[in-house]
Amino acid sequence: MEEITDTLKYEKELTNAGYKYICGADEAGRGPLAGPVYAAAVILDPNNPIEGLNDSKKLTEKKRDKLFDEIVAKSLSWAIACVDEKEIDEINILEASMLAMKKAIESLNIKADYALIDGNKTPDLSIDCEAVVKGDALCQSISAASILAKVARDRYMVKLGEEYPIYNFKKHKGYPTKDHYIAILKNGISPCHRKSFLKNLDEKRKKYADEL
Known about the structure:
alpha/beta
């Protein structure tokens, strides 16, 4: 069977069904030990195509940065939102991710009438929507949102790294790397860490004992 490679298939079908403003939404930063979870929503302009859109994780940093500027310049509407680490600890990361996407979609300056959401769950929205598994690779508007969310979060974490240099956020962006765990074990938990993600520190202390 021939693989479907039309990454505008979802948008075209919805346009044919009568929807006018179709946004894609995605999040970035569900897995890190520190910092907010970010989300973005994008309504692409069908008359102003953007070449090279793909899942942000499959692109180089240089390519993501270039596409970020192009998405901002060419889209009909875009928005970025986040939910901070304190609220993540209060409501859990899944709910925080859904909230960040809801905030991004509701912040669009052109109101979307349909939302395509990456993954298998949708936020509580007042418009029609559907979840698209692996949507960041299959659907251009979700790909665009994934790039905006990823780049915005990475840039935030680099700035946060200037405030908390001992954790080296610039290198790992808050993700659970060995170096990050060792920095936490040596220096303690900062205000920007997600405490609900750090309940395994005793286990990590044993694992990295020789390097502490």
